[in-house]
Design brief:
globular; 2 strands; 1% strand; mainly alpha; Ammonium transporter fold
Length: 442
């Protein structure tokens, strides 16, 4: 009898261990496919930027985007993951940082660790997204080497420092101010958008963009349908991005990045409602299909910070507002003499700002965890200022340094001839088709 009881106990223990391992494997699979979907974001950015370029610059724009993705992966391995884990208290390293250093047992094929690799992969794709956001703003006139340096600074250092402060469960913005940003409206989109703005001020406009009197000329995309298709791919990829913003808890209620209860159901309601509102708002404002599809992204960003708690019609209204306002902001930016080729700063910087501040307006008082302050408008405004400054200041200073060294901008004569002709060993299009014959001089 005792032997049978012992065997039964042993079998139950084995069954419990098997169940636990199954849950662990399910967690790995979930983040694996979130990461896979996020790669589609970069396919979208590639199509988006190549389509938005003029025919003479198509491949040069694509090369720049591909290299940004490639360089972010190893640099985030060596620097970014450590920054996220080591600096939630500001510039004071915490003990958790040891798990992010490249020589840690967690940073390799350790069979006892079923989590770090997939979380690192998800965060690496978040990092690459910030670089791709910045990439579109500067097409057709930035030097590739300088762009890569700026992309690495943004993707593997700047944005992840903001994530450590405002997207870590014990980050100081949450612990001290109740900052709430579950869908990364501030820590990804605001930082990347304001970083792009800082670079654009030093980079200057494309040749021919502005007349001597300051009025702007249209430098049309050579393939608007391809650009719109790329934007739709980005939106598909963002379902993986937002899925990666929720914490899979085996056998229990899933939580958001801060440890508060959250569901994919809430994310689904509010992502789609924001998406819809953004399209409609941009259509009312512009009737332009490019801005309508950009409006879909703006709508998602405008609701992103509160995806876990919003009533879906509110997400729709935030998206509607963002989709209407951001194209107007883009026109204002152009009148200021700043050439943002794809509207990266308005779409991501202003869209993200609406998202961050919106939580303070509509979710003020929502409780936090572990004794942290509840959500407040003041806390969200503090977070918004931090994210804007953290993006703009490094972007401006780093690009000013490169400008001072004379290596930031492609020479004007090269811009006139076309970057593909001078920098790329192959043609984008066959002879006789668009871009295959004599290139226009605009």
């Amino acid at each position: 009898m005792e032997q049978q009881l012992a065997e039964l106990t042993e079998r139950l223990a084995a069954l419990e261990a098997s169940h636990g391992m199954a849950g662990t494997i399910n967690m790995e699979i979930f983040y694996w496919w979130c990461t896979g979907l996020m790669v589609i974001i970069h396919a979208g950015f590639l199509a988006y930027e190549m389509g938005a370029s003029r025919a003479k610059n198509v491949l040069a724009s694509g090369i720049k985007n591909i290299l940004a993705f490639a360089f972010i992966i190893p640099t985030f391995f060596f620097f970014g993951w450590y920054i996220y884990l080591a600096f939630p208290n500001g510039f004071i390293p915490s003990s958790d940082g040891e798990f992010g250093v490249p020589w840690s047992e967690y940073m390799g094929p350790n069979l006892a660790d079923n989590a770090t690799g997939v979380f690192w992969a998800a965060f690496t794709l978040f990092a690459a997204t910030t670089a791709s956001i910045f990439s579109g703003a500067v097409i057709e006139r930035i030097r590739v080497a300088s762009f890569i340096l700026l992309a690495i600074l943004l993707g593997s250092a700047v944005w992840i420092l903001g994530a450590s402060w405002g997207w870590h469960p014990t980050g100081w913005l949450t612990a001290q101010f109740g900052y709430h940003d579950v869908g990364a409206a501030g820590v990804v989109h605001m930082i990347a958008g304001f970083y792009a703005l800082g670079v654009l001020i030093n980079l200057g406009p494309r040749v021919g963009k502005f007349n001597p009197d300051g009025t702007a000329n249209d430098l049309p995309a050579h393939n608007v349908p391809f650009t719109i298709f790329g934007l739709m791919l980005i939106i598909v990829g963002f379902f993986g991005f937002l899925g990666g913003c929720i914490i899979y808890v085996n056998g229990d209620q899933w939580v958001n990045i801060y440890g508060q209860p959250a569901t994919l159901s809430a994310f689904a309601f509010n992502t789609l409602m924001g998406f819809s509102g953004g399209i409609i708002g941009a259509w009312v404002c512009t009737r332009d299909p490019f801005w309508m599809m950009s409006g879909a992204l703006i709508g998602i960003f405008s609701a992103a910070a509160g995806l876990d708690i919003y009533y879906p019609p509110l997400a729709f209204l935030l998206g509607l507002f963002g989709g209407f306002v951001v194209p107007i902001t883009a026109k204002w930016l152009e009148r200021m003499g700043i050439d943002d080729a794809v509207g990266a700063f308005p779409v991501h910087g202003i869209g993200g700002l609406i998202g961050v501040v919106g939580v303070g307006v509509f979710a003020s008082g929502y409780p936090n965890v572990e004794g942290f302050p509840p959500i407040s408008l003041y806390g969200q405004l503090v977070g918004a200022v931090v994210m804007a400054a953290l993006g703009f200041i490094p972007g401006y200073l780093a690009s000013a340094l490169l400008k001072g060294l004379g290596i930031l901008r492609v020479p004007d004569d090269v811009q006139i001839r076309g970057l593909d002709k001078t920098k790329v060993p192959v043609r984008a299009y066959p002879e006789g088709s668009i871009g295959g014959g004599v290139m226009p001089a605009e």
